[in-house]
Amino acid sequence: MARYTQATCRLCRRVGDKLMLKGDRCFTAKCAVERRDAPPGRSSIAKRRRSKKSDRGLQLQEKQKARYTYGILERQFRKFFAEAERLPGRTGENLLILLERRLDNVVYRFGFASSRSQARQLVCHGHFLLNGRKTDIPSCLAKPGDVVAWREGSTQTEYYKVLVQEIEGRTVPGWLELDKQKLVGRIVNLPAAEDIEVKFDEKAIVEYYSR
User: Fold this and answer.
1) Start-end ranges of CATH 1.10.1050.10 in the chain?
2) Strand residue runs (E) in the chain
3) How far apart are the first and last CA of the chain?
4) Would you say 70 and 20 are in contact if contact means Cβ atoms under 8 Å apart?
5) pLDDT, tens digit, for every residue of 61-88?
6) What CATH number labels 103-187?
7) What fold is seen in the domain 9-99+197-210?
8) What whole-number distance in Å separates Cα of residue 94 and Cα of residue 49?
């Protein structure tokens, strides 16, 4: 499975914004955007001299922000966009909903992980059951009524024991329902576009692929 293997913080510096790719670290002074706000590989002088981006460049940046946020490579992201175009309704909103339905994102939204990359690793290692069946495919799309639970063997891990203590302080979006005692989550309904907190403009992504 192809995946990005370089320094994650370089992605935030590249787009000039915090994409919350490192979880709790992004709120500390160790955040790369806080320490070095220049794009990677460019000096402070080059940063001051860089020209204003074109409309096409801004659209590309928004598309890259979405890819980096959800940890998806270009080919897979293009497939999500093609599926969003086929669905009824607005393409941009459909794209957001499809991305939010990814199992790794759902695990992240439940608060089972502090970042999407961590959630993706947990899913790949087979720690979760989807409707009672072990599922280790991060891109699997969840639907309303689906139940996400920890595999019995995973509840004995040190990570799970720490999570039990920390889960009370984490919030869950309205389209999800979480039993914080049993750490079992259920997808109540599909997320609405206004309920999804993202740092990119989905309309610009539609414009980018429409050219």
Assistant:
1) 9-99+197-210
2) 128-130, 133-134, 147-150, 176-179, 184-187
3) 29
4) no
5) 899 989 999 999 999 999 999 999 999 9
6) 3.10.290.10
7) Ribosomal Protein S4 Delta 41; Chain A, domain 1 (1.10.1050)
8) 38
- The pLDDT value recorded for residue 18 is 57
- Which tokens is 205 given? 């992504």
Q: How many CB atoms lie within 10 A of CB 64?
A: 19
Instruction: Mark the ranges of the chain whose per-residue pLDDT is less than 70.
Output: 1-51
Q: Would you state the structure tokens that stand for residue 90, as one six-digit string?
A: 């607005």
CA 56: distance to chain centroid? 24
Residue 31 in contact with residue 11, Cβ under 8 Å? Answer: no
The amino acid that residue 18 corresponds to is K
Quote the CA–CA distance of 169 and 180 in Å, as a whole number: 10
Q: Cβ atoms within 10 A of the Cβ of 6, count? A: 8
Domain with CATH 3.10.290.10 in the chain: 103-187
Going by DSSP bridges, is the β-strand pair 184-187/147-150 parallel, antiparallel, or unpaired?
antiparallel
pLDDT at 190: 93
The pTM score is 0.79
b or e along 19-54 (b: 16 or more beta carbons within 10 Å of the residue's beta carbon)? bbbbeebbeeeebbbeeeebeeeeeeeeeeeeeeee
**Distance in angstroms (rounded) separating the CA atoms of residues 137 and 123:** 7
